[in-house]
Amino acid sequence: MFERLKAYKEEFGTFTVKRDYADHVLHAWYIKQKLLYKHPELKMPQEHIDKLTAVGFYFGDGHKLREELIVQEWLELLKDAIANNEKIVQNQSYTYKGKKLGTWLIGISQANKKGKKLDIRKRIEETGFDYANTSRTVENVIARLIEDLYKAENPNKLDWRTRFFKHIKKKEKLDDKTIKDIEFAWEFHFHEKPVWGKMHPGTVDRTAEWKAYRKSEGRWFPITLTNGEPIKLHHWVKRKRESPRQMNRIKGKFTEHELNELKEAGFPV
C-alpha cells in the first residue's frame, strides 16, 4: 500500500488522496493512517511513522496543508514581482504572470478588516510589500491601461477613450509624467493627440424651434430642408422619432393636444 501511495504522489504531486479517487482502498488506507496517528489509545509503530514522514506524508488536516501551499505560492509570486520591480496594484484587474495577484492582495486586506488572516498579512509585509503605497490610485490604473493599450491589436479609439477618461476627472489632477505617458501612447496608436475633456458639447434643446416649425409648416414631421436648412433641427427631430428615451426627456414640454399630434406623426409618446 505504501508503494501505491508513492505512485499517487508521483502522479498528483501530493499525498492527500482525494475522496473521489478511483482507488477507494488507497483512500481508506490514507484516512486510516491519520486516524491511527491521532488515536488516543492505539499507537502507530514509530518505524511506520518515520517511513511515512520521510517521504513527506502529512498527518495533519489536508485542507489546511492545501491552504498553506496556496498561500506559499502567492507569496513566492509576490516576491518575484517585487524582485522584478513590478508596479504592484491592489485591484481586481491587476495580474502578474497570468495570476490575479491584485485580487489575492485585496482578499487578504478585506479579511484583515474582520480580524482574519493577520498572520498572512504579516508574511506579506515581510516580503517588502507595503499595502499603504499600492492602493488603487488614478496613476496606477492609468499605468495599467497604457500597458494594456500597447498590447492591444487594432485598438478602437472610442472604446479606449472611454476606458481612459472614466478614470480621469480633471487633467490638472494628474502628475506631469502620467499626462505625458498618456499623450505619447495615444499618439503612438492613433496618430493624434488625445482630446482632454468633453469631445462634444451637450445636446441643444430645440423644442422651441420645433414648435415654431410646426406653427409655420403645419406639421411636426418630416422637417423639410431648404438649401440644407434647418439641418440641425432635422437631425434632432429624427433622433427623437427613433428614440423613446430621448423623446421621453422632452414630453413634459408639450400640451396634451401636441402629444396626440406627435403620436399620430409616429413619435414614441
TrEMBL record:
A Pfam family: HA
Species whose genome carries this gene: Phnomibacter ginsenosidimutans
InterPro entries xref list: Helicase_assoc (IPR005114)
Domain Helicase-associated: 1-57
Record's protein name: Helicase-associated domain-containing protein
